[in-house]
Each structure stands twice: as structure tokens, then as C-alpha cells.
Amino acid sequence: MQNADSQSYRTLRKKSGEFSTRSEYLDHELTIMKPKRWGLNLPGRDFNFELEDLIPAIAGTIGLTVMCTAITNAFATAYGLDTAFIVENVRVDMLVVCVFFVILFSGLFNPRANLAGIHGPMMPLIPLMAVSGTHPLALGALIAIFGLILSITKGGSRLVNVTSQGVAGGLLVYLGAIGTIGQVGAMRKWAESIEMGYVALVVLIVNLALYAMLARMKKRWLAIPICSGLAAVTALILGAPFEFTTTPGLPSFNPFYWWGDDTGWKLGMPGISHIISSLPFAILAVAMWSPDFLGHRIFQEMNYPKKATNVLMDVDDTMIGCSLRQVVSAFFGSGCITSSWGTYMIPAAIAKRPIPGGAIATGILSITVAIAGFPMDIAVWRPVLSIALLVGVYLPLLEAGMEMVQDTKDTQSAGICIFASAIVNPVFGWALTMFLDNNGMIGDKDRPKKLNIADKLIIPGMALLVSTIAMAIVGMLPGIPAMIGH
Q1: Where are the transmembrane segments (predicted)?
Q2: Which of 219, 335, 291, 250 is nearest to 464 (CA)?
């Protein structure tokens, strides 16, 4: 009789009716998958599509549309570009990324790599990038180079592995809490801007009740489509204004148009000065990857069965995907900065689905949205946007972080991580607390005895040093002026 480890996915697969619950069936699917790394994975042979794949697909599409539009709008404002530029540039990014890196890379050729999404925390730095003379194409190339170096040397997975549960839990709690507060504030501000402050209150309360009910029923994986739909319907019933403005169409994929002197970005091709000014921002972007990737993988580990190790996202392969996505999308004209796709991975983990099926569904849905145009208007409408981010990303992050903090040692590390993150930002909080925790200054005093010199001092020390220097250069350390841009 063949050992289960040597049998194929197709051989081991069972019908859902053979299980007493849907959850048991999904757990079984996760444990029998053996996705090929850097090889062709086919539907039916190596994985299957399930109804649950639509949940991360819808969430991921909303997330990509929202964040890509936000990043591109910030660049357009900083460089004095018009609205038409924003729509066309968003379309370029969505179409290029979804064909090459969502469907082909993560869907078919490396299902261990999470989708390469948008790097939201870099958005506040975009005005400073413009003042400093940063060129989006030079920035994209540098991020790709640094990201590939980190992934090839296994630096990304090493950083994840040397981060304790307390530090990781604190990081998730901070990100979840700040994001939740931010989205609630954004909803209130939007409602006040249309002189209908009560709309935000009603939309938030009804969705709070619905989310609590879904959590009670253990159906949180349905939260994004159901809560977003409820938010839209509630806001419209209460009279909130909405209109479609984006028409169907395809953008230009000619790099010479986007990087011309009088067309596209109107910046021309990058020179040496552009590369130098882009350097610290590229270092900082890649330095931020590890805590981002850590949070996404933790969600899989918390929701997948213990034996489902074959389908956990590979941090280093995800970095390769993000690096290649960055340089290719920038070549075709996109200004988006990339990172691991949280609005896809977190709902996928909660729904107990592996990467490939949902990735292909996300790609197809996002391509449809980009070409049709008008669904982009719905996705970026404030009630839909904020509720999708709240129930799909920030509340799950907050819950997962609190679940990870289980004893006094973890609580101490988590508390210091939250404190340090509040002083500067989550990257600094993660790097500083990891260094202190791995050397026994906080948390578990026995932890350093289990670590070698590289894991105790060299890796955490380099992470803290490099990220702090990069933040100092671009002005992200409170009270210290930026060293560039003057």
C-alpha cells in the first residue's frame, strides 16, 4: 500500500459529501495538497476551485483597486498629473500584475508564493519622494534588486523565524488597532463631508452587529462580501450620494509613452541623480516587507490544520514574486509600490483556502474590473472601502494578535512592540523589540539560550540598524529632519 506522502493530490482527494462538516473537508484539502515550486500546477491535478475561493478573490480585488488607486492618486497629486492619468495608470498596474503575477506566478507556477499586492505604509512618503527627486522607474528597479538579494540569501524567512510569538502578536495588535481607528475616522470624515454624519454611525453599527454574528457562527470568511454589500445598501438607503464615473477601456502598455518627457509621467527616463534619491526609499520599502509577510503567514498557521505545511506561503518565494512584480509593472508604467497582498491572504486563511484557486479567481475578477471601469467606482466608495478593510484586514489582525499573546512573557514583548511602534512606526517597533527579545532583555529570558549568535545579534541588529538609518534619511524618525529633499 502506498504511503500517503507519495500519493498525488488527485488520488487522495475525496468528495465533500464524505465529511460531516464543510470545515473538515477544507482541512482535508489543505493537508493533501503538494504544490510544485517553480513547476506547472494544474486545476484538477494539483488543486481545485471551491466556492470559498470567491471570498479572498472579492476581497483581494477590492483591496487591489482601492490601494492601487490611493497610491497612484498620491503620486499624481505630488507630480501635478491629472485624473485621466490616475485611471489609466491604475489599469496598467492591475492588468499587468494580474496576468503575469497573480494568475501565472502565484496561481500556476508557484502556489507557495503569496500574491504581490500594494505596499500601503509607503503611501505617506510619496510627497517626500517627489520633493526628493525620486523616479518611480528607478525606485521599482532598486526595490526589485534589494528584494531579490534578500530572498536569494533566505534573509526574509530568517527574519520571520527569529521573531518570537510575543513580538509578532504585539505587531499584529498594533497594526489592527491603528487600522481600525483609522478606518472609523475615515468613515466619519466622509460622512461629515457630505453633511450626513449619521450615515457613518449607522453603517458602522449595523456592520459591527453583522460581523459579530458571522464570528459567532464561525462564518467570518463571508465577512468582506456580505459586510461590504450591507454597507453599500445601507448608505444608499440613507441617501448618501454615489455615481459611476469610470468608463470601460484599455490603457497604453507602451513603456515609452509612460516614461516619455511629455507623456505619461512626464519625467523621462531615470538618471544617476534619480537612482541616488530613490535609494533610501527602496531600502525602507524592502525593510518593511518582513513584518508584513510575517503577519500574513501567521494567519495561515492559525487557521490551517497543523499538517498543512505544504501550502503555507514561502516568505522567500513571495519576496521573489514581489521583486519581479515591482520591476515589471514599473517598466510598463505603473507607480505602485508592492508588498505581500494582505487583503487576499487574510481572508483566504480565514476561509481555509490555499493560494492557487483564489489567485486565479482574483486575477480574472481584477482584470474584469480594470477593463469594465465602473466597478472601480464601487470599490473605492468610502462605505465599501472602509468596511471591507475593517472586516477583512484590521479586525482579523487585531484578533489574531490578541490570540497570540498567551502568557506574561508574550505580554511583555507585545507591550514593548506596541509602545515602540507608537513612538516611530511598526517597522521600528518590530526591529527593536525583536533585538531586545532575542537577547533576553525583555520577554522570555531563556530564549537567548536556544539561539545562535546570528539569530541573537547579527540578524536582529542588522534589521534594526538598516531600517533605522533608512528611516532617518527619509525623515520618518520623529523630530529628526529628513536628510534628503531639502
Answers
A1: 54-80, 92-109, 129-150, 162-184, 196-214, 221-242, 267-289, 355-374, 380-402, 414-437, 457-480
A2: 291
* Residues in CB range of 208: below 8 A, 6 or more apart: none
Rounded mean pLDDT, 309-333:
95
Is residue 176 a contact partner of residue 394, using CB atoms and an 8 Å limit?
yes
3-state DSSP assignment of residue 340: strand
Q: Is residue 15 left, alpha or beta, with left meaning phi > 0 and alpha meaning psi from -120 to 50?
A: beta
Cα angle: 409, vertex 309, 103; to 5 degrees:
115
* Residue from 397, 436, 467, 342 nearest 169 by CA: 397
Please, are residues 477 and 468 in contact by the beta-carbon 8 Å criterion? yes
Cβ atoms within 10 Å, residue 39? 11
Task: Give the Cα separation of 324 and 141 in Å (integer).
Answer: 9
Map residue 7 onto helix, strand or coil: coil
Burial readout 199-237 (b: 16 or more C-beta within 10 A, e: otherwise): bbebbbebbeebbeebeeeeebbbbbbbbbebbbebbee
**How far apart are the C-alpha atoms of 170 and 437, rounded to whole Å?**
12
Only one residue has cell 512584480, namely 325
**Any idea what DSSP says for residue 116?**
B
pLDDT digits (tens, 9 = 90+) for 111-162: 999 999 998 778 777 887 888 788 999 999 999 999 999 899 888 888 878 8
Q: How many angstroms separate the Cα of 152 from the Cα of each of 105, 116, 132, 352?
A: 17, 17, 30, 29
Grid coordinates 516587507 are at which residue?
289
Q: What is the CA radius of gyration of the chain?
A: 22
Which neighbouring-strand residues pair with 116? 340
Number of H helices, E strands in the chain: 23, 0
Helix-helix angle 395-404:342-350, to 10 degrees:
60
Do 63 and 345 form a contact (C-beta atoms < 8 A)?
A: no
**β-sheet bridge partners, residue 47:** 43
Exposure string of 435-450, with b = 16+ CB inside 10 Å and e = fewer, is: bbbbbeebbbeebbee
Taken in order 319, 323, 324, 326, the sign of the CA dihedral is: positive
Q: Which residue has the cell 465577512?
A: 223
Whether residue 282 contacts residue 146, with contact meaning beta carbons closer than 8 Å, is answered with yes
Q: Using CA of residue 276, residue 280, residue 283, residue 286, what is the dihedral sign?
A: negative
d(Cα 481, Cα 486) in Å, to the nearest integer? Answer: 9
C-alpha cell at 138: 528607478
User: pLDDT digit string (tens) for 84-113?
Assistant: 899 999 999 999 999 999 999 999 999 999
211 in Cβ contact with 225 (< 8 Å): no
How many percent of the chain have pLDDT more than 90? Answer: 60
Secondary structure (3-state) at 47: strand
